[in-house]
Amino acid sequence: MRKFLLLLILLNSFNNLWAQYRSDLQGTPQFVRNLLQDDFEPKQTIVETLLHESFSPDKFIQVNNIKHKEIWQYEENKAGGTDSTLFETIDYQYNSAGQILQEEKCNKLNSSTYKYLYTYNGLGLVEKRTDYVKFDHKGPLKNYVSITEFAYNGSGQLTLNITYDADSVFHYSQKREFDSKGNVLKIARNSENKYLYISNVFHYNANNILEKIDFMGPEKRINYSYTLKTDTAADKKIITVLREGAPFRSYKYNNVQQCVQKVRYDYKDNEPYDVITKIIYNPNGTVNTRLFYVNNEFKASQKIFYK
User: What CA–CA distance (Å, rounded) separates 93 from 80?
Assistant: First the structure.
């Protein structure tokens, strides 16, 4: 019991860190903020994307040994041409086993840096992540360090993560519950030293396919839900995510099950503001480039470099 209480004490952070990250993006073009706040890797599960899971190294990054990524933004100039600006770079360092040891993001517009260091357990699973964030521009945000530790079940599924600062002050925790088939059933969160509450409940159909995710707050009621619908035709697949019955996201796959397009449906000043990501692959199946559009107007690109 004492150990459990101690664990809870060490068990905000993600919410706070995410809020700081979003604040740090203020002053940059809206479409760039949209891209970075809703980042998506083709082999990341849709559930991970919807929940903004970003605690451990992305499987796609690690499996393909990506070394460097760049995000460029494009804007039309007064002469009718297009000006390009390097917005962000991301660099990765690996150990001899091919595991990511360090991930470093650099915002080129305000010189902010986000460095993540990873350590692993004997099974090769992430054991700890240490975040170093530095803001080199003038503003209210302060540099910070945070540490996240991870625990897993016998199947290697993440069951618990706890985040605290450099002084061991608790920030955030998340606990997951799985069924006998390995499906996540519930997620419970604790932030800002509030009590633990159920934040997500997952619903599956008779074929064990996820159909609905409920999002709840500390008040113990459903705030909103995501419903997933799958349309398969000619070996191609489109998964549409609805939020309260309205389109929220869609994912289009080719006939070899590679995600080739993602759409983020949104509104700005009561007008459609759809952010579209198109994914271009290399012949070996790895991603070459991602192209970003807002209402079908080309806005940015991301080039991926491999080891």
Answer: 40
Cβ–Cβ < 8 Å for 147, 163: yes
The domain ranges of the chain are: 2-306
Burial 101-110 (b: 16+ CB within 10 A, else e): eebebbbebb
- Residue-wise pLDDT tens digits, 213-241: 999 888 888 999 999 888 877 567 888 99
Query: What's the predicted TM-score (pTM) here?
Result: 0.72
List, as one string, the DSSP characters of the chain.
Answer: -HHHHHHHHH--HHHHHHHHHHHHTTTS-HHHHHHHHT---TTS-HHHHHTT--SS--HHHHHTTEEEEEEEEEEE-TTS-EEEEEEEEEEEEE-TTS-EEEEEEEETTT--EEEEEEEE-TTS-EEEEEEEEE--SSSS---EEEEEEEEE-TTS-EEEEEEEETT--EEEEEEEEE-TTS-EEEEEEEETTPPPEEEEEEEE-TTS-EEEEEEE-TTSSEEEEEEEEEEEETTEEEEEEEETTEEEEEEEE-TTS-EEEEEE--EETTEE--EEEEEEE-TTS-EEEEEEEETTEEEEEEEEEE-
Q: Which CATH number fits domain 2-306: 3.10.350, 3.30.160, 2.40.160, 2.60.40?
A: 2.40.160
Residue with tokens 């803001």: 135
* Dist CA 267 CA 274 (whole Å): 7
CA–CA distance, 161 with 12 (Å, rounded to integer): 13
pLDDT tens for each residue of 21-38: 333 333 333 334 334 334
Alpha carbon distances (Å) from 40 to 74, 125, 130, 264, 286: 20, 21, 22, 11, 15
- Quote the tokens at residue 136: 């080199």
